[in-house]
Amino acid sequence: MGTVTFTNNETGEKFEFEILNPTRGPQLVDFSKFYETTGMFTFDPGYGSTANCKSEISFVDGKKGELVYYGHPIEELVEKYKFVDVIKLLIGNGYIFPTKEESDQFERELVRRSYIHEGLRKIIDAFPDGAHPMANLSSSVSALSTFYYDHIDMEYEAEYQTMARRIIAKTPTLAAFAYRSSVGSPFVYPDADRGYVENFLYMLRAYPHGKLKEEISPIEVSALDTIFMLHADHGQNASTATVRNVASTGVHPYAALSAGLSALWGKAHGGANESVMDQLEMIGDVKNVDRYIAKAKDKNDSFRLMGFGHRVYKSYDPRARILRKLKDDLDQKGVKMNQRLVEIAEKIEEVATQDEYFLSRSLYPNVDFYSGIILTALKIPKSMFTPIFAIGRMPGWCGQVLELLQEPNVKITRPRQMYVGK
């Protein structure tokens, strides 16, 4: 391990700090004792250059366009495993199922746990018609802490696992109920004979007493399974950092997860896929793409191209590449797409990825660019795009909470500030 020397040019004092070497990614300077050593703070708005924790769950290489969960490339996971396997990977300290029998058994456990307390159903039923499902979902998860208050004081691994499996199992049910409440439809309970991902589609689509207008196809289940998997974890993004920050206070884990849901709802984060669809509708026709590309390049125009660019990725987002292929596969398999919006999106990508303006600024399609088109093809309402992101991300958040709470000495998150007031 090396060191780096910091020199205060005003006083001539020199301070030495240790260099940390992660298994992947850039080296880090250990500034944890910077204030105690120098009497100064570091200043990093947005924490773009600051690591707030040690984690082994996921890693994002923005330059290479790589995403791994516990060392497994996302491409490998999508090709070889199901979302329930990734859930186990993220909350099981990197353990992934060696056999199909174990995977199926875990999925049956999640389905069994997917039913919610009738008292919570009544709370959801009281939400007003027209409320956004993300508001309902965040409130429901927070309320869930009142039904399972014992999770605030966990000691053994089995207790942590019960907490995580319970919320992961119930999140699709809560999301489906949140949607049906928002449009005034009667709730449809989980079907114990269906799988974890299929059950969510069933609860969205079915009429009371379990009747479906049309059967849920394996193609649809597989596509949604992939979407969930791509969203499962992504380093210390805004919502994950929020979950960790809130959990560091010792609050009930479901309260911390509810805070993550609230952070995810923002248009700059999980809500971006809704904005992409709004923008494609606004552009309206493929012949208008060049005009809107020009607007995006005009520094005096407030228009910004949604679904392009990422805070971390400076090359093509690997999740976007997988979704682009998924879009093509679904189209070939006869899943009905909105061809007008598909043509607009493909034309935008074609033009932007050959334009020096976008290339020089490392602006490539991100995970939100094609996800909305695919979700629409799966007959999922636009207001449910972000809740679907949340269902996918819940296992990652739970893994992050488990990692944090099982540390020997959890330190409450307490950033500093640069005070500029009177």
Give me a quick take on this structure.
This protein folds into 3 domains: 3-65, Rubrerythrin, domain 2, CATH 2.20.28; 69-264 and 394-405, Citrate Synthase, domain 1 (Orthogonal Bundle); 272-377, Cytochrome p450-Terp, domain 2, CATH 1.10.230. With 422 residues, the chain is mainly alpha-helical.
How would you describe this structure to a colleague?
It catalyses: oxaloacetate + acetyl-CoA + H2O = citrate + CoA + H(+). It comes from Wolinella succinogenes (strain ATCC 29543 / DSM 1740 / CCUG 13145 / JCM 31913 / LMG 7466 / NCTC 11488 / FDC 602W) (Vibrio succinogenes). The chain is mostly helical and 422 residues long. The chain has three domains: 63 residues, Rubrerythrin, domain 2, CATH 2.20.28; 208 residues, Citrate Synthase, domain 1 (Orthogonal Bundle); 106 residues, Cytochrome p450-Terp, domain 2, CATH 1.10.230.10. Helix content is 51%, strand content 6%. A three-stranded antiparallel sheet has the order 1-2-3. Strands 4-5-6 form a three-stranded antiparallel sheet. β5 and β6 form a beta hairpin. α3 runs parallel beside α18 and α12 packs across α17. The protein is globular, with a radius of gyration of 23 Å. The relative contact order is 0.13.
